[in-house]
Amino acid sequence: MLLSRVLPSNTTLLPASSRTRAAPLRCHHVPVGRAITVPVRCRSAMTIQAGDAPPVLDVEPQPLKLLEPQPLKLLDRGTKLKIAVIGFGNFGQFLARTFAAQGHEVLAYSRTDYSDTARSLGVAFFDNQHDLCEQHPDVLLLSTSILSAEAVLRSLPIQRLRRSTLFVDVLSVKEFPRNLFLQLLPPDFDILCTHPMFGPESGKHGWAGLPFVYDKVRIGDSDDRVERCHAFLEIFEREGCRMVEMSCAEHDETAAEIQFLTHTIGRVLAKLDLKSTPINTKGYETLLNLVQNTCSDSYELYNGLFIYNKNSTELIEKLDGALDTMKKELFDRLHGIFREQLFDSSGRSSIDAGN
After folding, report:
1. Which residues of the chain have pLDDT under 50?
2. Which pLDDT score is estimated for 344?
3. In this structure, what DSSP letter does residue 51 have?
4. Which residue, 22, 74, 153, 228, is the most exposed by fewest CB within 10 angstroms?
5. For residue 347, is it left (φ>0), alpha (ψ between -120 and 50) or beta?
6. CA distance 133 to 265
7. What is the pLDDT of residue 7?
8. Residue 277 to residues 108, 280, 290, 296: CA-CA distances in angstroms?
């Protein structure tokens, strides 16, 4: 220090007094409204003391080391979750309505202003992603279209979330969001891939008996994180869903036949502009309902089912081949009937026989 250069060599600098006090310190990892305290060393003005004792150095204080914030125990809150819905369109609102009705705290973000709709559902709406993430939700639910999922996830300020936040998606394909989460999210975040295989139209009278597929891709083994995942799945159990645990790869292979095929047939029939008639059969009514159910979903969804499920390409080729096979069978049979009409059993032409 500069002062020591002008003092006698036997002069020592000592603090006149020191004491410890507690000062609140906040960091972005600590939930809003909760503060931690750490000891801070306070020193008064230095005094000069002469003596023959060895010099005592005035050591600068070391940087403070903050403890990792402890996650909030869900059991202390009666398993009520704070759920942030990213993408508050038709499907996001459909899910949020049930979340809120069960007593969970629901936050929502969307580029479109749905504040009035959110208010009517008892949901807190945010038009800024940073503000929403700073609320430290337990669960962040990705409810965007398949085509925009990557851009939305990349835009999220995940550094403002707790590092143990549970990420959930409800996309209609599963391998794509699974790989996206694993690629873009730090390893501290939990990942649950889900697919409610119903929507606002098919689930408007309740969810009882409707399938809910899920894959626990990455869930921490601590009690609170296991309990949080269970609490989220329990939302759908309470509504009577048929819970199906299935890998993302198996889901996509199965869903290509179940979902993509259904949407394809419905949209092909829509191209025919089918109309209701006074003599509708039950089968025809089923086709009309299929057109209504599939076409009520956006074409963006249908396009996403094709682009982001590798099994869909093979399926549509099989469908095209099946149609060609059916046409060949029909025309071959028609050709056979014509031949029977043109030639009698003796092989003579029916025209010659008439002469």
Report:
1. 1-72, 74-76
2. 64
3. -
4. 22
5. left
6. 41
7. 46
8. 44, 5, 16, 21
Own/partner pairs for 319-323, CB < 8 Å, 24+ apart? 319/261, 319/264
pLDDT for the residue 68 = 47
Q: Which domains does the chain have, with CATH numbers?
A: 82-246 (3.40.50.720), 255-329 (no CATH)
Closest CA to 231 of 103, 71, 125: 103
**pLDDT for res 60:** 47
C-alpha 237/C-alpha 240 separation (Å) is 5
Question: What is the C-alpha to C-alpha distance for residues 44 and 33, in angstroms, rounded to an integer?
Answer: 32
294-321 per-position pLDDT tens digit: 898 889 889 988 999 999 999 999 999 9
Cβ atoms of residues 305 and 252 within 8 Å: no
Which pLDDT belongs to residue 350? 57
Instruction: Give pTM, 2 decimals.
Output: 0.69
Task: Encode pLDDT of 195-241 as tens digits.
Answer: 999 999 889 999 999 999 999 999 999 999 999 999 999 999 999 99
In degrees and rounded to multiples of 5, residue 326 shows phi and psi of -65, -40
Phi, psi for 137 (deg, rounded to 5): -65, 155
Q: Which of 269, 216, 205, 273 is nearest to 246 (CA)?
A: 216
Tokens standing for residue 7: 């003092």
Neighbours of 126 (CB within 10 A): 21
> CA-CA distances (angstroms) from residue 167 to 24, 140, 156, 170, 206?
31, 5, 12, 10, 25
Please tell me the distance from the alpha carbon of residue 3 to that of residue 25, in angstroms, as a whole number.
33
Token pair of 12, please?
């020592």
Given a contact cutoff of 8 angstroms between Cβ atoms, the answer to whether 41 and 15 are in contact is no
Which residue is associated with the tokens 């036997």?
A: 10
